Amino acid sequence: MSEEIKINPGEFERKSKDELKKELSDLEYAVTMESATETPFTGQYWDSFEEGIYIDITSGEPLFSSKDKFKSHCGWPSFSKPIEKEVTKYYKDNSHYVERIEVRSRVGDAHLGHVFPDGPTELGGLRYCINSASLKFIKKEDLEKEGYGELLSIFE
Question: pTM for this structure?
Fold first, then answer.
């Protein structure tokens, strides 16, 4: 992946909770706004490996690339890293009687999932375990028409 990629947060804006409540499914809203978790092996993207990017459904900000996605057999989409480190924020999460690191989106402040230190060592050792319900996938061939043409460089 190109190190020159910089996502400008000023190009994206999170919609109000009222707008999101109208536009998102009940599950998408619960995951992104109420920190819920989808049931493993049920999300749209857990076993999808088509080329493209994954964006935050609350703001449209690009978050992850299929180039960094791997099979983790955990039931959720797993990535070794975000497109750019700054697009995600991290918080200590002590819910469910275990300490985890929550991953939220920068602009949308949407709950995405958690990051764990048990990813493939050859990919940096992290596993971003992300809810499909917090993401929208844009195919590589649709990046230009969807306004993400500058991210085609990821796939060169």
Answer: 0.94
- Picking from 68, 82, 81, the residue whose alpha carbon sits closest to that of residue 155 is 68
At residue 22, what is the residue type? K
124 Cβ partners below 8 Å, 6+ apart? 80, 81
Is 129 in the active site? yes
User: How far apart, in whole angstroms, are the C-alpha atoms of residue 27 and residue 42?
Assistant: 12
Give 1's pLDDT tier (boundaries 50, 70, 90).
Answer: very low
Residue of 24, 112, 129, 143 with catalytic role: 129
Write out pLDDT tens, residues 122-136. Answer: 999 999 999 999 999
Please tell me whether residue 116 adopts helix, strand or coil conformation.
Answer: strand
